# Entry
Amino acid sequence: MSQFPDPNTLLQEAQGHVEQAHTQDALEEVRLTWLGRKEGRLTLLLKQLGSLSIDDKKRYGPQYNDLKTTLENLLAAKEKNLTSTERSKALEKDTFDISLPGTPYAYGHLHPISQVMDSLVSIFRSLGFVCADGPEMENDYYNFEALNVPADHPARDMQDTFYLESSQKQLILPNLTASHADQEPTLLRTHTSPVQVRVMKKYPPPIAIVCPGRVYRHEAQDATHLAVFHQMEGLMVDEGISFADLKGTLARFAQLFFSPSVKTRFRPSFFPFTEPSAQMDVSCWICHGSGCPTCKNSGWIELLGAGMVNPKVLTGVNIDPEKYSGFAFGVGIERIAFIKYGVNDLRLFYENDTRFLEQF
# Structure
C-alpha cells in the first residue's frame, strides 16, 4: 500500500505549502497542486480508492476525506488572512488625509418668488390675517360679476382673459346673479379676488385674509409683463373699518418688508370692486427719495392697488354694507420681487438660470 502515503505526512507537507504562499496567486497554485480536479495530488489519491479492497477502503476512505476537508479549511483561512493583509497594505499606501475638511454639498433653496411670497404671508399673519386659497379655474360669477365688474368691462375681453375651450360660447355673460355661482369653470382666474368672494359667502364677519396664488392674463410677455404670474390680495371686513385702517395696515407692511424708515403715499385710482380706490407708493429705500434708477429719479415706487370694499360687493355676498365695511388690496409678487431685488426683467425669474437664482 505504498501508493497511499500516510495522511498525516501529506497534511504536514500541504501545510508547509500553504504557509509559504504569500500572495493570492501563490495560494491558488497550492490549491491546484493538491485539490485540482484533474491533476491534484489528493484528488488522484481519492480517485484510486475505488480500486482498493473493502478493508483498505474502510481504512483510507475516512482518513483521506478528513484530509481533504482539513486542507480546504486551511486554504480558506489563508485566503482570508491574505485578503486582510492586502487591504491593510493598501490603506497604508493611501495618502488621503482624514483631517482635511469634507467637500461641502451644494444645497438647493427656495425660489426668489417663493421667498417673497412666504415673507409677505408671514408679515400679514403677524398683523392678524389668515391665509386662504381657492381654485385657479374659475367661473365668470366669482372672477367678474361678484366683484362688480360690468359685462362691458375691458377685463372681460379675450386679450386679457384665458377662457376655457368648453366655454367659448359663454365669453360674455351679462346680467349674472348669485344663482350662477355654481356653474362650471369657464376661465383661468385673472386675479385672486375670487377667493375673497368665496370666503365672504362662506363665513360671516369679522374677516381678515390674504390670498396668495397663481393668476393668468392673456398678455404678450416682455420685461415687465408675464402671462402667468403670482398675486397676493388681502381683505378685512368688520364693523367700523375705515380708510385709516387700510393706510395703517399697508404702511406697517411696507415698514416690515422694506425698511423701518420707508414712507407711503396714496393716490386716487379706480377699481370696480373698491370705492374709494387708491394706488399706494413707497419711498425709495435705496436713494431715500433723492432719485435713482430704481425709482426712475422720482423718489417714489408704485407698489400696489387698494381701496374700501364696494358696498355692491358686500351686498352680493349677503353682508349688510350699512353695518359692515372693509378694505381690500392686491400686490403682484413678481413686481414686489422685481422692485426689492432691483431685477430689470421679470422673465429672469422663470428662465431657471442658476447663475441668476444663486444670487438669492
Remarks:
- The two ends are 90 Å apart (CA to CA).
- Confidence is low (pLDDT under 50) at residues 168-178.
- DSSP finds eleven helices and nine strands in the chain.
- Residues 54-93 form the longest helix (40 residues).
